[in-house]
Design goal:
alpha/beta, Rossmann fold, four-stranded parallel beta sheet, three-stranded antiparallel beta sheet, 51% helix, flat
């Protein structure tokens, strides 16, 4: 490791620990009954003892070990910002949870439930802000030509040149491409020689200090031996090797790399990546479903009574639907049709007004009198709040399709809608609610590709006027 990078890492580690210490002091002060809001300087009045000093020092060591083990001092130049936030959330939970467990066992006045909660929030937010500020300063320095990493590109054909050019154009990443080694001719030989390729790279490394080697090759038979030889040759020299996996052209999917027993594992998925945002989405689902079930309990009881009085049969209709990763679950709805509605469906297929796999007709003879009101107001969906609470569904997501509709999906890319949890409301419902399967799929793909918490909240807000208008609901 270069002395420059070692000094920067030391500075980052020091700032991390300073944030943790500041969070301890802040949390202890604001949760103490002796803290005075008028005299905010009292936050700096800390009673120091040998026991406190040793305890805090050991705790800081634990934080440092956790941050290091999680890889938070590795390079994040090519990583999405959410990855660092997710790693910080994991370390914060790992280091704060023992405090809650130790609280009943030790007699420490400051270690109150309030302190634990405030410290968890303060340390996580503080570390996120501190690291964003430092990385922002690093990006500006790299754009000015400072703290650059010298790299060599190894690949074949035009794609290698384009990738190297893209890396060089992104000034904030701080990479200086020293040379591009095109081995297309070497790969065209009957028996590509890995030693000859590595010799070319070694000559460059001997002439110029190189920080990283980027390898952009397909994982076919001839390239595998070259990739292995490059890794084994340069890892012992302290040169970082980054392999750009050209496994396939990814039109919709995202990829990430993890490790299993020291071996790289490439993950390719088409749904939203697991992140803090997805955790927050699940928390929002739980909170909204619990509150809504309590608030609407009297209304749901009246609806159930009205259904039972209107037609024979149960008030709740349970139907097997297809959810996340094509796993089946029992979706709950208020019954809006006669009891034998599913048995009558084959006779009505020729009356289907919807295009594609779904089945919808405006004047469905199976719908009851109360059912028409429930469908027009979307009140029949209220029991699905229980599906949200149990985790089979989300508040926002593609509508869950019955098995009958899923079996009729012909285009394979349509099945990407199963990459996320189904929802009570979705993008299609707040736009038109017209029974056109192509429009439904396009809206679902747009939601998956552009998912964010902000989009979820926007759809929730737009659902209210869409439901009140009753447009397309039948």
């Amino acid at each position: 490791m270069h002395a420059r990078r070692r000094h920067l890492l030391t500075l980052l580690k020091a700032f991390d620990l300073l944030v943790v210490v500041a969070s301890i002091l802040l949390s202890a002060a604001v949760t103490s009954p002796e803290f005075s809001r008028e005299d905010w300087l009292s936050i700096f009045e800390v009673r120091l003892s040998l026991a406190n000093f040793v305890g805090v020092s050991l705790y800081l060591v634990a934080w440092h070990v956790a941050l290091t083990t999680r890889g938070l001092y590795n390079s994040y130049r090519l990583s999405h910002p959410s990855r660092e936030v997710t790693d910080l959330a994991f370390v914060t939970m790992l280091c704060v949870t023992p405090l809650a467990a130790l609280r009943p066992l030790v007699d420490i006045d400051v270690l109150t439930p309030g302190f634990v909660y405030v410290f968890a929030a303060a340390s996580f937010v503080g570390l996120c802000i501190e690291r964003r500020l430092l990385r922002g300063m690093a990006h500006r320095a790299r754009a000015m030509g400072r703290n650059l990493r010298d790299v060599v590109f190894v690949g074949s054909g035009q794609q290698t040149l384009e990738t190297a050019a893209e890396l060089a154009r992104r000034d904030s990443l701080g990479y200086h491409v020293v040379e591009v080694v095109d081995i297309e001719k070497d790969l065209q030989e009957p028996n590509p020689t890995a030693h000859r390729v590595v010799a070319k790279l070694q000559a460059i490394v001997d002439r110029h200090p190189i920080d990283e080697v980027f390898v952009a090759l397909d994982f076919d038979g001839g390239s595998q031996s070259i990739i292995r030889e490059i890794i084994s040759t340069f890892e012992v020299q302290g040169v970082t090797v980054r392999v750009i996996a050209n496994l396939a052209v990814l039109e919709w999917a995202w990829s990430s790399v993890d490790t299993l027993s020291g071996h790289p594992v490439i993950t390719i998925a088409s749904g939203p990546s697991e992140s803090v945002g997805m955790v927050v989405k699940r928390v929002v689902d739980i909170v909204i479903s619990v509150v809504a079930l309590v608030v609407f309990a009297p209304l749901m009881a009246l609806i159930a009574l009205a259904i039972r009085r209107d037609s024979p049969g149960p008030a709740i209709f349970r139907q097997e639907r297809v959810g996340l990763n094509r796993r089946r679950f029992r979706a709950l709805k208020f019954r809006t049709m006669v009891v034998d509605a599913e048995e009558l469906l084959p006779r009505l297929e020729k009356m289907n007004e919807a295009s594609g796999a779904v089945f919808k007709i405006r004047e469905d003879p199976r719908v009851t009198r109360v059912g028409r009101i429930l469908r027009r107001t979307s009140l029949d969906e209220l029991p699905q709040l229980w599906n949200v609470l149990t985790g089979d569904m989300s508040i926002v997501g593609p509508r869950p399709l019955p098995v009958r509709d899923v079996d009729r999906i012909e285009a394979r890319w349509h099945r990407r809608r199963f990459a996320v949890k189904p929802g009570i409301t979705c993008l299609w419902q707040v736009r038109s609610r017209r029974p056109n399967f192509d429009d439904i799929i396009r809206a679902d793909m747009e939601y998956i590709d552009n998912w964010s918490l902000a989009l979820d909240f926007k759809i929730m807000l737009l659902t209210v006027p869409a439901v009140l208008s009753g447009d397309g609901a039948h």
